[in-house]
Design goal:
Layout: E1 6-10, H1 23-35, E2 40-42, H2 55-69, E3 76-78, H3 84-97, E4 101-105, H4 114-125, E5 131-135, H5 137-140, H6 146-153, E6 158-163, H7 168-184, E7 190-193, H8 199-204, E8 209-212, H9 219-230, H10 234-251, H11 258-266, H12 286-295
Amino acid sequence: MFKLRGAFTALITPMKNNGEVDYEAWRRLINLQIEAGIDGLVPLGTTGENPTLDEDEEDKLIGIAIEEVKGRVPVIIGTGSNSTKHMVLYTQRAKNLGADAALVVTPYYNKPNDEGLIRHFEAAAAVGLPVVVYNIASRTGRNISAPLMERLSLIPGIIGVKEASGDMAQMGDIINNVAEKRKAEGIPFSVLSGDDGLTLPLLALGGDGLISVISNLVPDKVTALVKAGLSGNFEDARRLHYKLLPLIKAAFIETNPIPIKTAMTWAGLPGGPVRLPLGKLDPKNEPPLRTAMKQLGVCCASRIKSTSATGC
């Protein structure tokens, strides 16, 4: 087992204008991320529009990711489902294709009770691939409390949590009452922020890093923030937090990944349209996104050439 620590990107899935997956852009995105110093990659999450991908597309995306990464950073594949049977199949597929870990979201819509959740994650861990629990009640309708997270942390193979509850008190309890206990027992259990805007406070509480949306666009800056926080340099971490905050706000001005894919496309990076039922960014929300990009100098970066007249 290993401990996840650092900045990880919840990768978008690049699309062509006709709505097909752009696999060459996917290769480019992966290599841009690694060259920028990111600590790990998370394909096929919500940011990657996994609910609208078919299985052949997912197979190819995973295969290309493993091929391009070449073991340079961990690859954590989103394998969640509200069907335990399907989740196990997706997790087994990720293992077979060479993933380093699986990100398994709380089953959505079903709103399972505690017993059901425990059995669901036991089934995930039984596949034999390290599992990161993904707690995001705003999308699933079911929060995993700190006491329940402690029970999940005792399942062999569960190595951490992507915490996107938005509840800093709960996050602190998970770090102090779960991760620290496992650490004392010699068991790795990582607590990663699932919200870009809460990275700094999570690090200050003793968390291990972030699974980020905005690092699709600015991986170097997000990595710098996380490294500063993990090293205890909170003066630099705070400065970077406030520098990134306008982009963080703009990236969630509408449902993720609509704004971040729009920004990527404007910047000439792998992006493209979103798939239905997501729609295009509302024109009224374009100005704050453009402004946030300009403030970070994104469009002036040497590796970026804007391809959109409506971009920044």
